[in-house]
Amino acid sequence: MREDAVVGDRAAQDDALMRALYAEHAGPLYAFVLRLVAGDRHRAEDVVQETLLRAWRNAEQLGRATGSVRPWLVTVARRIVIDGHRSREARPKEVDPGRLESVPAADEIDRALRAMLIAEALGDLTQAHRDALLETYFKGRTVNEAAEVLHVPPGTVRSRVFYALRSLRLALEERGVTS
């Protein structure tokens, strides 16, 4: 039981030390930090809180210190401000999302859905018509080059492309896709 009494007595001493530190140094420390952080009140409050937390963690050393602890508190606060500044500078600047929302961008979902509908419509074509379209439109070959690849006359390629486009247009209209 003796150990519990010692721990309780120590906690009471730490509590008394922190209350005394806060009462004596929090106001002047806040004013000092407020100048360091260019008037940012929230940041100044955070720095003072962190400084007093570090003082609490080092309560044994501060309790044994002779003279004022204010220089120690000011040094700690100054280092916290410097560390915060360095960490913000090390990270890339955050972008204001408001600006991004105003930039026009193509809707990729509509484009993907449209591509899916076109792929389905191409699947409805006969293999010969689909091959003629793939060779001429999607692979960029001329009619003569497509004829060589498909082993058919150029006139047949032209005819298949014509009828394939007509069938494709009808299939897309049925699916609600407009040009």
TrEMBL record:
GO biological process: DNA-templated transcription initiation
Molecular function terms from GO: DNA binding; sigma factor activity
Gene3D superfamilies named among the record's database cross-references: 1.10.1740.10, Winged helix-like DNA-binding domain superfamily/Winged helix DNA-binding domain (1.10.10.10)
Annotated keywords: DNA-binding, Sigma factor, Transcription, Transcription regulation
Domain RNA polymerase sigma-70 region intervals: 21-89, 121-169
SUPFAM superfamilies named in the record: Sigma2 domain of RNA polymerase sigma factors, Sigma3 and sigma4 domains of RNA polymerase sigma factors
CDD domains for the chain: Sigma70_r4
PANTHER family per the UniProt record, alphabetical: ECF RNA POLYMERASE SIGMA FACTOR SIGL, RNA POLYMERASE ECF-TYPE SIGMA FACTO
Family: Belongs to the sigma-70 factor family. ECF subfamily.
NCBIfam families: PRK09645.1 (NF007227), sigma70-ECF (TIGR02937)
Name recorded for this polypeptide: RNA polymerase sigma factor
